[in-house]
Design goal:
By secondary structure, the protein is mainly alpha-helical. Helices cover 72% and strands 4% of the residues.
Length: 671
């Protein structure tokens, strides 16, 4: 069985970490180098004002990447989901719509940024001293946005097509070329910030061309002219699948906008002025991003290990993996802490230095920034992996809280509060305040979760043996039943199966999935058919399908297998959508009045009235989100079904008989 054979369940954790984490670390470091290499050469060839200019232009690049990741990650997830459903044509249409969106968005963003660049620079905190360099650098960078966005979109899709090495090669090629061209344009041709921007754009064009050339080599889909047709509904679905990546990037844009404006404002009130704080703090942030990239890469690589073993109930391996990730995270962050505290002057000098009277206060502010803002960077070794851990085990709410807490919930308010109270030094202390608070939240949630890591199982039983096998149908028919919680829909389905003498499938799928995947029944029960509203806000650290997506694909395969083999009743699980192309499928939706649903919950589940009402609303919301996410349709929309019935009107027994009579008239399949 898969449980015995899957390498994630038995191989040494150290070997698995090397296999999965190293590529993630390399990929993220390459992205970080793209962001930082310009500043190294600009600082040495132009001066600190040139570096400050790149910092106020940088939010435009991050904004562009937000759209690129949203479209690219959404299209890659759509590709994987549709291939899992064996719908290559649909998969191809999703990818082409993603490409079309990337082209349109990139051109609009390019044109808008070029025309309104001065206004955008003001929004992102540009000062008079930085303006000339920022305009010169920015006008070139925005012209390269189409190549950046389309190239990055294709990069995500190429990974999903099963060619991660090609995707990484195109990224690394661009990064290396940027490193080569920067000093040539700056030191040989003396083109300053214009040269640095040109080097970046040329590198992006090379990556773009390499990724475009891959289109002919796609393994899983085949493009043709008819597929290149824009469909609004499909494009919205693709974008929704990548919304988490968009939110993650936009949070960075918000933070950079706030910090640049506040450092400009309070810097002007200090001896450092406006330009030095914006320049230095941008370097500090990008330097710390290298630290975070390593930690994120380590933790992201552990996701499949954590997810599989958690689902399989191998909690000792989960704890060991988590311990390894946290240990490595702390080691990396401790090393970074030592560097930031002991040699901040040497770190800042990598990016060049100021001249004349400003040199001394430039170094002074750099040392103050590294030592103050990053004093609790050790906490990142715990906070970042914690968010990814919760994502891996399917706890999307906790993951979303941890992903957004430091940047949005803590850092931005701390900037405003401490800045207004203590000026420029208050802004620097916002970093450790946010790090400390995020660390505390992470430790609390992590401690609670680890304490609850104990093996348990649900008593889900196969109901097939309890159902009559005296089939009264003369041909294959499948009845799918979607139902509100507490409506009696499951019992109605069971009665229909008894009346028609066919098999009944509900929790059987949990048992089958557990046998095929090696995941525990408890884990499958808690993750299938449930998707809360915060699931889409999960961070985009690790690209690919999440645990629910994998379960949905495997469960879809089982549903199709059962439907092709025999007549049956299938409860929930988007079966009406999964089997929509199959003949002789009767789609039913059962609903009920709230009062009656509450009464059933009280009678059959032993709940009190208030708990029952809350439970009904919560579960129906989860089912609705799940159905919407995977089908693009509204769960309780009548046009999705052949018949919708209020179980209160006739009662469950007569409702079941009415449905059987309906099937007889519609399909003429009863003997």
């Amino acid at each position: 069985m898969e449980k015995e054979e899957n390498i994630l369940g038995y191989e040494k954790i150290s070997k698995l970490m090397l296999k999965f984490s190293v590529p993630c670390v390399i990929s993220l470091l390459v992205n970080s180098l793209y962001n930082i290499v310009d500043q190294v050469f600009i600082g040495r060839g132009v001066g600190y004002l040139g570096n400050g200019a790149t910092n106020v232009v940088f939010p435009i690049s991050i904004l562009a990447m937000a759209f690129a990741f949203m479209i690219g990650d959404g299209a890659s997830a759509y590709l994987s989901l549709k291939l899992g459903e064996n719908k290559k044509e649909e998969a191809c249409k999703g990818v082409t719509n993603g490409i079309i969106m990337a082209i349109v968005v990139s051109l609009v963003l390019c044109l808008g940024s070029f025309v309104f660049l001065p206004q955008l620079l003001n929004l992102f905190g540009c000062t008079d001293g930085l303006r000339e360099y920022a305009l010169e650098y920015g006008h070139v960078i925005v012209l390269g946005l189409p190549f950046m966005i389309i190239g990055s979109t294709l990069n995500s899709i190429i990974r999903a097509d099963g060619s991660p090495k090609y995707a990484m090669t195109s990224m690394v090629t661009g990064a290396i070329l940027n490193i080569i061209l920067d000093p040539i344009f700056i030191f040989v041709y003396h083109k300053g910030v214009w040269g640095a921007a040109t080097a970046t754009v040329i590198s992006q064009i090379v990556t773009f061309v390499m990724n475009v050339l891959y289109i002919r080599k796609f393994k899983t889909i085949e493009f043709n002219k008819t597929n290149f047709k824009f469909e609004l509904k499909r494009s919205i679905k693709v974008a929704s699948l990548g919304i988490s990546s968009f939110i993650t990037q936009m949070s960075f844009v918000c933070v950079m906008t706030v910090q640049n404006n506040l450092f400009s404002k309070y810097g002007a009130m200090s001896k450092f002025g406006s330009d030095i704080p914006i320049t230095v703090f941008g370097i500090v942030m990008k330097t710390s991003q290298i630290l975070n990239s390593i930690i994120i890469g380590i933790a992201a690589g552990s996701q499949p290990i954590l997810g599989y073993n958690y689902g399989a109930g191998k909690f000792d391996r989960v704890k060991k993996t988590l311990k390894t990730v946290l240990g490595l995270g702390v080691v990396v962050s401790t090393f970074a802490f030592i560097l930031f505290q002991t040699i901040p002057d040497k770190l800042i000098n990598i990016f060049g230095s100021a001249e004349g009277e400003t040199a001394e206060i430039y170094i002074e502010f750099a040392c103050l920034s590294f030592k103050t803002y990053l004093v609790l960077c050790i906490c990142n070794g715990i906070q970042i992996p914690s968010g990814i851990f919760f994502q891996a085990i399917g706890k999307s709410t906790k993951s979303a809280i941890l992903s957004l807490s430091r940047q949005i919930l803590f850092l931005i308010p701390a900037f405003f509060i401490l800045g207004s109270s203590f000026g420029i030094k208050g802004l620097l202390h916002a970093g450790p305040v946010a790090d400390g608070l995020a660390f505390i939240v992470s430790c609390i949630l992590l401690t609670i979760e680890v304490k609850h890591l104990k093996k348990s199982s649900i008593n889900s039983q196969s109901l097939v043996d309890d159902t009559s096998t005296e089939n009264k149908l003369n041909k294959n028919v499948v009845i799918t039943i979607s139902r509100e919680y507490g409506s009696g829909g499951r019992y109605i389905g069971r009665l229909i199966a008894d009346i028609l003498g066919i098999k009944f499938y509900d929790k059987d799928f949990i048992v089958k999935l557990a046998k095929e995947t090696g995941l525990s029944e408890e884990y499958i029960e808690s993750n299938e058919q449930k998707r809360n509203s915060l699931a889409s806000l999960n961070n985009g650290y690790y690209f690919g399908l999440d645990n629910r997506d994998d379960l949905f694909l495997k469960e879809s395969e089982l549903i199709k297998e059962v439907a092709n083999k025999e007549s049956c009743v299938i409860i929930g699980r988007c079966a009406d959508f999964i089997l929509k192309d199959k003949e002789n499928v009767v789609k039913i939706f059962i609903y009920s009045d709230m009062e009656n649903k509450i009464n059933r919950a009280i009678e059959f589940y032993g709940m009190d009235k208030e708990k029952a009402k809350k439970e009904i609303k919560q579960i129906d919301k989860l089912r609705s989100n799940h159905y919407k996410y995977y089908t693009g349709n509204d769960w309780n929309k009548s046009s999705n079904y052949d018949i919708c019935i209020n179980s209160d009107t006739l009662g469950v027994e007569k409702s079941a008989q009415l449905i059987c009579d309906f099937i007889k008239e519609k399909e003429e399949i009863l003997v």
